[in-house]
Amino acid sequence: MIDETFHLTPLDVRRYEFGNALRGYDKERVDQFREQVAAELERLNRINVDLEAKARSFHEQLKSFRERDKAINEALVSAQQLRGDMKDQAEKESELILREARAEAQRIIDGARASLRALEEEFTAIDRMRRGHLAQMRMHIERQLAEISAAEAMAPPAPVSGDPQSQG
Predict the structure, then answer these.
(1) Does some domain include residue 138?
(2) Of 49, 57, 51, whose CA–CA distance to 9 is shortest?
(3) How many domains does the chain have?
(4) Is pTM, for the whole model, over 0.90?
(5) Is residue 1, in this structure, part of any structural domain at all?
(6) In a structure prediction context, what are the per-residue pLDDT tens digits for the chain, which is 168 residues long?
(7) Which residues of 125-138 are buried (b: 16+ CB within 10 A; e: fewer)?
(8) Phi-psi label, residue 158: left if phi above 0, alpha if psi -120 to 50, beta otherwise
(9) CA distance linking residue 121 with residue 119, whole number of Å
């Protein structure tokens, strides 16, 4: 079983002393191997440190992207809500304008009808006056014709040009 809390450092590898045995390993080769292992551990540690730094950076970027994404989503929701509000407001304004236009049109029509009635009444009054004036003229002319007829009836007869009395 491997102890996960055990950490081997390059310094541990370099300082570790192997015990001597009668028929042991070649000390030079063991030292060379220890140096290679230590160098590899140093290289791996540097890579690990770099990867951890990159991972932290990526986590920070991810956090930033998530915050931006959240802000963008909130802005999108706000924009959609604003669009809906603006659409509702525009519809209300258009309905109000339409109602006002219809009311104004009705006022204009009512005014035109009232003007038409007034003109018709004025025309009727003028036509009555014309008829009354024509009736008065007719009566005046008939009176004058009657006077002319009466005057002709009272006048002596005019002499005729072949009449013997008119020659002399």
Answers:
(1) yes
(2) 49
(3) 1
(4) no
(5) no
(6) 444 666 777 887 877 777 777 777 777 888 888 888 888 888 999 999 999 999 999 999 999 999 999 999 999 999 999 999 999 999 999 999 999 999 999 999 999 999 999 999 999 999 999 999 999 999 999 999 999 999 988 977 767 676 556 555
(7) eeeeeeeeeeeeee
(8) beta
(9) 5
